[in-house]
């Protein structure tokens, strides 16, 4: 583990220029004023209904996701690198998915083993040979980034199935602009309110081949008990499109229709927020009560586009992640702008031996894991926990990868005692249609417990507003 931790607010005792706006505000008003506004912000979140549920837990199903009042701030140059690196990665991942369900040139070239595709639990044989509009498979990709120094960013993982969190990006900004309107007046903080337009334009651009005229679009949700239901309804409202559940849709003559007060209306583009297994009971799980029977046939017939496409999960497990830099070189002919974290494959004997010898210093993750579950953080684990995980690795090494314990950068959070540094990561969102675009912000997740490296909301983390500053030349 690195000895030094990069503080995004301070360079030693000197405040970094990006955070001057925060320092100046605190000098004028004091920490007590910031704490008072935190209470106002929490009341506003509750009134708006910005909630986050965790499966399998009792208690409040409509609890607030912890929100920190101190923004995370990037300068224009930092964001240019994040944006270009994230878009580059999204392009390579989309090319890989298209290739995996097509000619499989990357397998023929010996870069990726065939079993990594065909034996992936997310692989869908039904998608072989299918060509979506513009060859875009993952229309919304969340790229999880960590920072270890002024110019050191790394990709921690990719989210290509149904990445969530963008509603918090937008609502965090809405709340911050209400709490601190004076900080936004000079226009130096780039706005995020164009996301709905970017997403709507991307959805329109991937209308199915048999759609003539303006496509009708909808968001398909599992329902109000889903942990991200607020996001589903929020995005539908922002785009002015219908939020539907499986029973609201029917397929007739390989066309999808939704029930409306005016009768049935054909739907051409569906942003689905349910897993592949439950998407179409005629093709996947027969017991699905939240899917749409016949949806896959309608898609294959060119009458509806589903975003993100079924099968995109082959691109975002942690074993595939290892090969994304090679995908960038193979498909784009470029070097990765943002590198991966060094990763050890536990299904390789040499890597496994190294991991078993160094478990106390590594982070071990399930290949198909998410949400901070099923992982070991060596430096904070007991000897008993390490021994238990070693047994798991010996039993099913294919299920795990391991990475060094990075010294994640810290950003300031508001505590009862004042500002304190906590570890953070970042999930920017790439929206792909006819073009690839991003809003200048992302979901900054923060580990609220001192010393913790786990930022996931399901594991006690919180979120921050993420500010991207305009360059001095354009501000």
Mean pLDDT: 92
Shape: globular
Which regions are unreliable across 5 or more consecutive residues at pLDDT < 50?
Answer: 54-59
Number of helices: 14
Largest sheet: 5 strands, mixed
| Overall number of strands | 22
SS class: alpha+beta
Which percent bin holds the helix content? Answer: 25-40%
**Strand order, biggest sheet?**
3-22-21-18-17
What is the CA-based Rg, rounded? 23 Å
Report the β-strand fraction as a percent range: 15-25%
Distance between the termini: 39 Å
Structural features, described:
The protein has 475 residues and is an alpha+beta fold. It has helices at 20-29, 31-48, 76-100, 105-108, 114-118, 166-179, 181-184, 195-205, 229-239, 295-300, 318-321, 324-332, 349-357, 383-395, and strands at residues 10-11, 14-15, 67-74, 140-149, 152-159, 217-220, 242-244, 249-252, 255-260, 263-267, 269-272, 305-307, 344-345, 362-366, 375-377, 400-404, 410-415, 418-427, 429-432, 436-437, 443-446, 462-468. A hairpin with an 8-residue loop joins strand 14 and strand 15. The two termini are 39 Å apart. Mean pLDDT is 92; it is low at 54-59.
Which helices and strands appear, and what pairs or packs with what?
Layout: E1 10-11, E2 14-15, H1 20-29, H2 31-48, E3 67-74, H3 76-100, H4 105-108, H5 114-118, E4 140-149, E5 152-159, H6 166-179, H7 181-184, H8 195-205, E6 217-220, H9 229-239, E7 242-244, E8 249-252, E9 255-260, E10 263-267, E11 269-272, H10 295-300, E12 305-307, H11 318-321, H12 324-332, E13 344-345, H13 349-357, E14 362-366, E15 375-377, H14 383-395, E16 400-404, E17 410-415, E18 418-427, E19 429-432, E20 436-437, E21 443-446, E22 462-468
Parallel strand pairs: 3-22, 6-7, 6-11, 11-12
Antiparallel strand pairs: 1-2, 4-5, 4-19, 8-9, 9-10, 13-16, 14-15, 14-16, 17-18, 18-21, 19-20, 21-22
Helix pairs in contact: 3-12
């Amino acid at each position: 583990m690195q000895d030094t931790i990069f503080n995004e607010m301070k360079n030693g005792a000197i405040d970094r220029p990006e955070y001057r706006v925060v320092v100046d505000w605190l000098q004028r008003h004091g920490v007590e004023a910031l704490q008072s506004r935190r209470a106002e912000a929490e009341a506003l979140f509750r009134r708006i209904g910005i909630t986050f549920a965790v499966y399998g837990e009792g208690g409040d199903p409509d609890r607030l996701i912890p929100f920190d009042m101190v923004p995370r701030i990037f300068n224009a140059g930092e964001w240019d690198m994040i944006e270009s690196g994230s878009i580059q990665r999204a392009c390579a991942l989309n090319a890989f998915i298209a290739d995996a369900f097509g000619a499989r040139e990357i397998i023929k070239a010996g870069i990726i083993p065939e079993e990594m595709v065909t034996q992936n639990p997310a692989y869908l044989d039904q998608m072989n040979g299918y060509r979506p509009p513009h060859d875009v498979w993952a229309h919304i990709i969340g790229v999880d980034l960590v920072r270890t120094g002024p110019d050191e960013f790394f990709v921690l993982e990719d989210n290509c199935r149904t990445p969530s969190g963008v509603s918090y990006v937008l609502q965090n900004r809405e709340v911050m602009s209400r709490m601190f309107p004076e900080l936004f007046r000079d226009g130096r903080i780039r706005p995020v309110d164009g996301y709905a337009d970017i997403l709507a334009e991307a959805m329109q651009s991937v209308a199915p081949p048999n759609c003539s005229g303006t496509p009708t679009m909808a968001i398909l949700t599992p329902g109000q008990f889903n942990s991200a239901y607020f996001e589903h309804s929020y995005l539908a409202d922002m785009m002015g499109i219908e939020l539907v559940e499986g029973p609201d849709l029917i397929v007739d003559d390989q066309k999808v229709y939704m029930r409306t007060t005016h009768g049935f209306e054909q739907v051409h583009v569906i942003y689905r927020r349910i897993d592949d297994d439950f998407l179409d009971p005629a093709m996947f799980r027969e017991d699905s009560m939240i899917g749409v029977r016949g949806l896959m046939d309608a898609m294959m017939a060119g009458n509806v586009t589903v975003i993100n496409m079924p099968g995109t999960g082959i691109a975002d497990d942690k074993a595939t992640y290892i090969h994304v830099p090679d995908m960038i070189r193979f498909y784009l002919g470029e070097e990765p702008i943002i590198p991966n974290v060094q990763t050890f494959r536990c299904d390789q004997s040499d890597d496994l031996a190294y991991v078993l010898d160094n478990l106390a210093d590594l982070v071990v993750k399930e290949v198909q894991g998410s949400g901070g579950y099923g992982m070991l953080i060596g430096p904070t684990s007991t000897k008993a926990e390490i021994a238990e995980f070693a047994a798991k690795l010996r039993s099913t090494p294919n299920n795990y990868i391991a990475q060094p314990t990075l010294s994640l950068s810290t950003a300031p959070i508001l505590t009862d005692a004042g500002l304190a540094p906590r570890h953070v990561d970042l999930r920017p969102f790439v929206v792909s249609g006819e073009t690839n675009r991003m809003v200048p912000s992302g979901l900054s997740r923060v580990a609220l417990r001192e010393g913790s490296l786990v930022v996931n909301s399901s594991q006690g983390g919180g979120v921050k507003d993420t500010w991207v500053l305009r360059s001095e030349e354009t501000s």
